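dumping the sequnces here before i forget
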Amino acid sequence: MRVNYSTFSTTQFRVLSDNQIEAIYLASLEVLEDVGVAVHSPEAIELLKAAGGVVSDQTLVKIPASAVKTALQSAPERVVLADRKGDRVMSLEDDNVYFGTGSDCPFILDSATGQRRKYTFADVADAAKIADALPNIDFFMSLGLVSDVPVPTYDRHQFLAMLSNTVKPTIVTAVDRDGLSDIYEMSCLALGGRDAFRAAPITALYAEPSSPLKHTRNALEKLMFAAENMIPTVYTPCPIAGATGPATLAGCLVQSLAESLSGLVVAQQKRPGAPVIIGGVTSILDMSTMVMSYGCPELFLMSAALTDVVKWLRLPMFSTGGCSDSKILDEQAAAEAAISLLMATLSGANLIHDVGFLESALVGSYEMLVMCDEIIGMVKHIARAIRVDDETLALDVIHQVGPRGQFLDQDHTFRHFRDQFWFPRLMDRANYEKWDAAGRKSMGDRVREATTKILHDHHSEPLPADVLKELKSIVARADAKLPGA
Amino acid sequence: MRYLSSCHRPAARKRQGPTLPEGGKMSLARPQLTILSEDQRRQIYLSMLEVLERTGVEVAEEEALQVLRHGGATVQGTRAFIPPHMVKAALASAPPRFTVHARDAGKSLRIEPGRVYYGPGPTCPYFVDVSTGQRRRYVRHDAATTARVCDALDNIDFVMSLGAISDVRQSMCDVYEFAEMAANTVKPIVAWSFTLESCEEIHRMAIAIAGGEEEFSRRPNFIFYAEPLSPLASNKEAAQKLVYCSRHRIPLVYTPCPIAGATAPATLAGVLVNALAESIHGLVISQLLQPGTPFVAGGVVSIMDMAETVLSYGAPELSLLSAALSEMCHFLGLPMWSTAGCTDSKLMDEQAAVESAVSVAMAGLSGADLVHDVGFIESAMTGSLDMLVVSDEIIAMARRILRGFEVDDATLATEVISEVGPAGQFLDHRHTAERFRREFWFPRLMDRSRYDSWNAGGRHTLLERARERLSRILAEHHAPQLPARAAEAIGSILAEREKKEAKAAP
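..and the predicted 3d for all of it:
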């Protein structure tokens, strides 16, 4: 036997050194203490005051480093999400990586016509179904924004479409605190009560600070409601370097972190131990088109760097991948999705969202989602790295086969090829003649076929009829309260 | 520091990647990827030594065998058993860096840690015709076209032809290929040949371009590529070329193409052991013949697709094995010949883009020195300029990631954040104007326009934009001509060989 032997059983990846992580963290503390954040909620201002925050101009709160430190001490270093059956399926901790869609794209690329149009209730239901079917998609955000329901209650309708079409954990957006309250009620109902939800949270909230350094009343009220009820919350900004954040990547990270950490302080002041996930979409402004890019290398680089910082703080990380600036599913969408998913996976970010986004987050595409599922399988295989031991080093097999021999008929080959090799489903490796005879299909063609097949064949586990009825009544109750209803 | 108490300051993370340079206030944040631990690298190296000593290698060439025997190997028939001390000595004399000089000095390759160069690969039987878009046999003119396109692309650093010429005398397709490429690019060429004879002629052409034998030895201007066979063998031709290049100090890539499950074990660790043994026995021969001769190890390390029985050029195992083999080569102080920008797809589609992107990024993250096969489709059966141009953009994108970013007071920008303040904007701040060009990558082919302008502009895909760029390059780009004397010399080397061949087989 060999002793004092250390192994890597996965890839090891970092962007920042410990000193650089610390420099970014300390700079964000300086921003919070010296510049402060705009806080548009009296309750949140009171909470921050109690933590030592200094208020000026009514809404500007300067937050001392000690308040951040206290918040970091009470924030849980792991958050678990459960599926609709109550199984705790996602442990957001350390380097566990999970993949899912993003929320609220206004447009869908219609599978049948190829045209771009608004998202409907039925579309979100279909998106949920697809996410439910895909093996490498772990959680579901709405992908699209339901547009064929009343705007002030879209969130309840959207959540109904989500919850009734996938058993996978969901992350939701909400109109306001009341909307979140209804969604929470719906979640508890689906699961069998508040205690059941505490034990197995099937839904997390997504809410955003506004870059630079501003917390709206709406975002804070949702954040505080979630904290109070121990609803896991992703509270993360989308700073755009050069527009709503500094043009230097390091500076953009500093600001992003300050925004998340000030939200964390509010949540922990509201209820110590509240489960909060930080991170965010940290990208750049494309200077020639004035678009926030969802396919640029700076997004992938900053996300990986922010993951280093957030994990150093021992908090779960919300990152981005599987998205593109391309308007359609083409070679650009494929390349940007591939590099972003590779980088996010290597970085070990816990929640990797926006899988399926096209057109810089304006289009949520089923086909993009299905293609990314295949890419995720591929990059996960890389991140598993290489097992090194006597069996895999195979010296006896190499010796037995000898120079100029072949391994195809070796027992060793049969024993191992299934666990060593990745088996693609949408990547084609046939020879030219076979591919030609099968209709010369591109990956786009195969992706479209696979999408159609899922929509046709996949049936998500339905909610019990009585539960569905009660969920609908909560939605109807909200609609009934609308002015003019 | 002062804000972090020890109680919630996390312990050092479990990972033990390479440490980053700190040095002073400014530091560069760069992605650092590691696949194997130090102990795992050592174990793979020691296993490779065991294979060379116990199993040995077949070398079907007398001179190489003699050299090995003389150096301390046990030789039985054509099998050589190489003891560890010979490997140690070879590693000690292999140069840690060398330069391959381009016609345009700014495009020379400095093969040393921290640089990653990309380029196409050789010998595909087929080529995608630019004007018809159809797959057809590769012809002589395609070598000139490919070299011209490589010459124009910013992220292609060395030149190979993407195919094997079918419309000349077959024994001379290698020399014609070199001649066509040399006339159409100022970037360094990686050459190959079937025979020793062609290898010598390519060397003579390179000497003519360098301006004399002495000039060439001082400033070698091309790299020669030759292949050991998996598993564990060098055939006569490969060994002859190895011996010739070593004697003449021609920078040599001597790397195998093991196929996990077919010509190598199905387990990835076993593939690494085999691949390394195959390169390293070549290194031992080269360093015995000429200590210090520039040598590149590595190889195309991939798997046999068990359903299609094809050597996969797009598999994640290719990227993973290549990155691990890079680590092994760097662990031994040798440069790495790696593979990326290639695909199993039959056309430049989404699959080709995904497989190119993943492999290009992984090769870059692994710090591989020379990354070849950019532009291969159909599992290395077909060369595609569409794939080459798209991959050029992907390489640019990967390079933006590899470059990292600076972390210092100016980039942390707390002053700027303070001046802008909550709910402000950075677009018109001086800091943005000063910095964005340095921090942001500007794509050439990736589209970030708004829907309306994309729609009005004809709804082009990436492939369409790549083809537009390719047409422009083909219409407009020409490398500076070779000096007349060099062109003449190349012409007469070809004519002389034609005459000789005609005499041998009229």
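DSSP finds 18 helices and 23 strands in chain B.
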